[in-house]
Amino acid sequence: MIIGCGLHNAIPTAEFRLGRGLALSSTCHRCQNGSESILHCLRECPSAKEVWTLLGLYSDNSNLHDWLYRGARSGDVFLFFSTIWWIWRSRNHDLFNIDDSWSASKVVSLIRSSVREFHTIFAMHQSLSPPSLCLHWIPPPVHSVKLNCDASWFAPSGYAGFGCIIRNPDGCWLKGCTGKVEVCSVLFAELYAIWRGLLLAWESGFREVICETDCLEALFLVNQRMLSKDIPEWDLAKHIQEVMNWNWRVSILLIQRTANSVAKAAASVADIHSNWSQPWSELQHLIDLDMTLAN
């Protein structure tokens, strides 16, 4: 998700926040030398450069789009994007924990751990659930239900909407919930949607549940065996893991965004928290479209 924000120049760096009247200066708080653009934050700042150097990764002088494009086509795309992710997380940690900044070696350790987890999850999905990566929604097996979750960040309000939709093997609506929550990050919003969806499924009496998200970062976090308390979303990810260990069968899978259109539409208009026994007309249209594509 941070990559998509980067391509749209929407990562909330100091330069981004100054341009929207949310900050008084664009100066990088880590090096105090120059404006904190996206490239400065992720590549040019001495703190970021040290991480890239320790990993033995070459840092060029190309523009943001070309740099991300080449990284996406590199030999180890997981390493490239995991490095970007943890440099950004390190930046945020240092901003709010001035007396407890992360060293470059700690960031590298977190990156390598993430890469191992990414490869494990990727291999699992390739071998066990390739249909989950289809471009359209797929009905769940008989005797189970499918829960789709998504979040929509209402920047710069600090709030995000969430949508959780449960359907049966015939593609029919069973339960749904929407709402708005104050969030500290887009990842928190995605995790919150998963957590609320799992609670809805449990409270509705479903015990064979396939939960789907289009957020790889959220999937990665809830599948980590050892969660770092330094991560702001640690507490919420831990709650999700605890819910998954209740007396039921539940799995969380990664899907394409095109296969998550119903939950996305629900999240985009979410306001006060509501439970829905029936879909409204826009959602019903998308549900019908899902079943047309599935058949």
UniProtKB/TrEMBL annotation:
Q: Name one Pfam family in it.
A: RVT_3
CDD domains for the chain: RNase_H_like
Q: Which domain of life is it from?
A: Eukaryota
* Domain called Reverse transcriptase zinc-binding: residue spans: 7-52
RNase H type-1 domain span? 148-268
Report the GO molecular function annotations: nucleic acid binding; RNA-DNA hybrid ribonuclease activity
Concerning Gene3D superfamilies, the annotation shows: Ribonuclease H-like superfamily/Ribonuclease H
Q: InterPro entries of this UniProt entry? A: RNase_H-like (IPR053151), RNase_H-like_dom_plant (IPR044730), RNaseH-like_sf (IPR012337), RNaseH_domain (IPR002156), RNaseH_sf (IPR036397), RVT-Znf (IPR026960)
Q: What is this protein called?
A: Uncharacterized protein LOC107481940
Q: Which gene encodes it?
A: LOC107481940
